[in-house]
Amino acid sequence: MSTRKQKISFTIKRIKNFWNQYKKSKRGLLGLAIIIFYSIVGIFAPVIATYAPIEPRIPTSEYPGSPGVKIATRLCKPFWYKYLPWIKRGLTNITETFYFYGNIMFGSAIIHFIPENQHPEGGLDFDKAAEFPNYMASSYKVLKLIEIKATPPDGKQLFFNISEWQVRGARLVLPNELVLPANKLLQMCTNATMFKMTYTTGADLVENMKIVKDHKFTTAKSYNEWNWASSSAEFNVQYDNKHGFTTPGREESGCLNITFTGEDTTSEDATIMLWKEFYYPYYQPPTDIFIHTSIYKTGSSTITLQLTFIHETEEFTVKTVDIAEPNKYNHIIASEFTQNSTILDSIFSTPGNYKFVVKLKIPAGTNTTIYLDYVDCLLYGNIFGWLGTDNAKVYPSDIFSTLVYGTRVSLIVGLLTAVFSTFIGLFLGLVSGYVGGIVDEAIMRFTDLLLVLPTLPLMIVLTVSMRATSGYISMWNIIIIITLFGWMGFARSVRSMVLSLRERAFVEAAKAAGGGRLHIINKHILPNVFALVYITLAMSVPSAIVIEASLSWLGLGDPRLASWGKILYDFNNSGVVTTKGLLDYWFWVFPACLAIATLAAAFVLVGYSLDEILNPRLRERR
Amino acid sequence: MGLKGYIARRIIYTLILIWAIITVNFLIFNALPGSPIEAYIASLKGSRPEAFRRLAEHFGLNKSLHEKYLITLKNLITFDFGYSDNFGAPIIDVITRERLPNTLILMGTAEVITILIGMLLGVIVAYKRGGVLDTTIVTGSLLTYSVPIFFIAWLLITFFCLYLHWLPTSFAYPVTWIRNPPSNIIEIISGRIYHLILPTITLVIFSVGGWILLTRACILETITEDYVITARAKGLKERTVLYKHVLKNASLPIITNVALAFAGMVGGATITETLFNYKGMGRLIYDAIFLTGGGSDIPLLEAIFYILALCVVVANFLADLIYGVIDPRIKYD
């Protein structure tokens, strides 16, 4: 018993000694600190990352009519961009150039405006010009026209009164027919007249906005969020805590209860408007909107639901639906507006107070009760999260979350590969060195063969053929492949060490004392090789991490896993690379690259310090 | 046994190695369950019957395993890799016509610069070992192992191409050359160099660290030997000691590595060439894996892989020969 205690205390002492030596190496400590940091990040990834790494979505329980709502639009910039002073925000003036062509056809004047970049030098004939529209299509949303001037080819400049022009759908600028009819314009300007249009547009960093605070109507307070007005006095709106939309496992059942008792009194269709007022502070429209409403009604008459935005006197209806089926919750969704769609452009033109309106039209002479639940409107911006979002079409990922979760993959692949390949190398090296003879020859020739083969192409080829057979590449395939080509160098060094060790006096003595092969390997050779094992373990992690990232970057990674390599792959295939992508989206890839580099470097540093401590030859030299 | 016997042994060993490589090639592409080559050929059956018939005949699709092995052996030895429908040419032409020269230009430049810089710095650092310079350069070199090459390349592209607009981001030569190739030799060379700068810098940064460490280790190994101490004790000039006693003896492992590096050249640098869209062998690997219509050109991959391995084996053989000639310690037995 006491010998065991002694043994333990001896081990503790040895570890302490080792640690005291290790402490002296600043590089080693730095490396260790980085590894510990990344391990913590990897372990606590679900806490640190706020979103799922792949296809994050707001769950169905929030918006029951949708299979999941995206957290942000694609290609968002990081939220802290709004603190960067050099990024232009607010109103700016833009000047765009168009060329005017016109003709009289069947007695009426027809005009065309050709954008500058599509207008060939020396002009174009009218047939070609006819393919272009009769308005100036601005590249940005026109908030206000400032100036329009025309320069005919002969050179005399014409200035127009701004009131002679009108803006339609936020991006189309055309002459106002009442003040400036086409034939008048045709008289003033000859073909190929250059039009310069100056207008004000907004550029802004828009954050995601959730318009309704309590869209599930969980408490009675949520009633106060809404205002309502109706065309007749037979309406009543109140909070209801019984009839909300519920699914098994969800007890909350609050909703808005709208009753209409117009069976005997009304002769006209009645409408009720419920609205929620909000302030939209940006000079640029949102990139997308998502509107959700769950509606339930009693009675057989068809009710019309209209989802609308109101700004000052302007009204924009997003969706109109007829609800016919009674006694059942209908989930109405309006979503996936393409960026720069006229609907987005025209709704949100300037900062100001807006109303999100739910309008119900009820036919005359009916009694009905309507429950409204899960009424919400999400406005998606162009900045999101710590590192923005990627380019996924349906559910863009939060890059920061992917980065955090990716730590796991890199650590697992790096460590497991190192352990496996070191173990294989150790085993084959020991066998080869200690057994010798034909076994040694066979193992060493095989090692040579693998050392000779070009590694990266071979790995690529193997991964491709694995993908060809199994359909996809899993993380384990990658681990196996990297392991397969990671053990040769170590096996060679172990073999040469064993060869010299087995001739030493202490091994001879052990043999003379009757020690068996296993005993000698276990007690006399392994302890001497182990220093090398630790060093190799640390030193083979970095290459594994970098190789994994490189394979993923080539598109040969596990597509279902959030890894650093996947971030690189997505960026590389997003189409923003070849343009000014790296300048505009550096925050997308550089953190991942930096993470790979620092984690790999940390293992190199640790390995180097271990080498300094454990390798006697280096110690002497210092 | 003398030098001749040594060479004979090496030749036999190299031949065995080539056979082993062909066998590995056969195993990976033909014999593994769900053989990639057969899957690839079968996938052509419906869409491109012409190509299917040609490849099926070339690879002996319906023959027994040992017959297929013999066919592979014959094909690879005679460099008859078949016809690539995706690239519209015999595979050997696809490889040698444009890709191989491009790669040799890029890798040759990069390799020469890397080795020169690496050895020079390695010698300096080894001589001033223990100093600040040594620590910095050694740590720096160790760290280059851990930096992914695309990180270096992206940083360079961002700075030199996108920010400063000095250098092109892609291709091996100006795009206009495709329509009207230049005849002026100066124009050709300058156009090539213009497109070579960034990939070369990337490759040099990426691989110079290894050379520094190797040279340093080799020199440190010899510098502590007794004969160096003797030479110094004799009162020889430090320069003479360095060139005659240290460098000469330390150069042996470096020579092997130089030979191997030049063999590895043929493979190009898959990642660098892909990044810079430089149409070389490395990019060919990428192009073969990701065909525009989806899928991979497996026969082409097989050919590339075989050629790469063959080059390395031959280079190894040459390195062994040089060793045998210049290292008196090698016993020819």
Molecular structure report:
The complex is a heterodimer of chains A (622) and B (333). Chain A is 41% helix and 24% strand. In chain A, the strands form 5 sheets. In chain A, strands 11, 13, 14, 16, 19 and 21 form a 6-stranded antiparallel beta sheet that branches. In chain A, strands 4-3-10-6-7 form a 5-stranded antiparallel beta sheet. A 5-stranded antiparallel beta sheet of chain A has the order 12-15-20-17-18. By secondary structure, chain A is an alpha+beta fold. The longest helix of chain A has 37 residues, at 399-435. Chain B is mostly helical. In chain B, helix 1 (3-31) packs across helix 4 and helix 1 runs antiparallel to helix 13 (298-326). The termini of chain B are close together. The mean pLDDT of chain B is 83.
Helix fraction of chain B, binned, reads over 70%
| Beta-strand content of chain B | under 5%
Number of helices of chain A: 18
Q: Which regions of chain A have little confidence, pLDDT < 50, spanning 5+ residues?
A: none
* Content of β-strand of chain A: 15-25%
End-to-end Cα distance of chain A, whole Å, is 42 Å
Number of helices of chain B: 13
Q: Count the E strands of chain B.
A: 2
Q: Assembly state here?
A: heterodimer
N-to-C terminal Cα separation of chain B, in Å?
6 Å
How confident is the prediction overall: mean pLDDT of chain B? 83
**Largest β sheet strand count, sense and barrel closure of chain B:** 2 strands, antiparallel
Report the radius of gyration of chain A as a whole number of Å.
Answer: 36 Å
Q: Sum up the overall morphology of chain B in one term.
A: globular
Order of helices and strands of chain B: HHHHEEHHHHHHHHH
Query: Unreliable segments of chain B (pLDDT under 50, ≥5 consecutive)?
Result: none
